[in-house]
Give the backbone structure.
Amino acid sequence: MEIRNLGASGLKISAIAYGNWLTHGSQVEEDAALACVRQALDEGITTFDTADVYANTAAETVLGKALSGERREGLEIFTKVFWPTGPGKHNDHGLSRKHIMESIDGSLRRLGTDYVDLYQAHRFDHEVPLEETMLAFADVVRAGKALYIGVSEWRAEEIRAAALLARELRVPLVSNQPQYSMLWRTIEAEVVPASRELGIGQIVWSPIAQGVLTGKYLPGQPPPAGSRATDAKGGADNVGRWLKDDVLERVQELKPIAESTGLTLAQLAVAWVLQNDNVSAAIIGASRPEQVTENVKAAGVTLDLGILTAIDRVLDGVVTTDPGRTRSPRRSEMFS
């Protein structure tokens, strides 16, 4: 397993991180989830990402159980706060001081740990002063409940404003967690340049575009039975944006490129995001242990310029690059 620094910080993490957004506590039975975490550990993954909102807190509980008994100093455990949890009352979401302070304690209890290595703002909160949010995060760090802080799906200008406050508060804002793949490149124009300047690293999610970049979805054919696109609990809405014949045809054209490098299409997709020097880690999920084994083979792979150029040529016209597509919801949108 390749080990990288998280941004410009001293925290070292595995280049492949294991995440449980759509699996633990919802899509995958607990025994299977535990087997996937065990396989991740066996493959050298030390970095585990979750959030309080995943399966309405159940995912944190499952991950905590899966990691119980492991040497805590050998793990990097990440979680997040923002989305509604619990009964969804007026203070059960957002980045207010109240919600952050209550949420970190709940996350630590469910994860079975005294601290998380990284505590992340899951989206930007338009209704809470950024100063309030950042001071709350600083107090979480000073209380020893988190070692570093980060954000997720924030725009470049939001990251810059948070970084300025973090410097004033003398707390380590080290990361952003955006969606990033061959098909979704919205961070490249603005977020990545700003992050490089600020010493912030990307921990990217959905590097395989919700499974589309495995090549299993074929143009003109219905999604395979049991795939994510057929599972309402497994992110079917998120996959839908890619299930267009023009996109799926281009994905099939990537197969010879993957074969020329000795990689599967999924491995090529994960390796591709890791070529970006601002990416510290790629998050993979799994419903079966063998998926973990396959995807970790992307760590340490170097794709030459010819391969990268060939990928761009095949996908020209179906890649999303507009930085405006990165946005955080307002409260009215969350509860509409």
Observations:
- The longest strand covers residues 76-81.
- The chain has a mean pLDDT of 91.
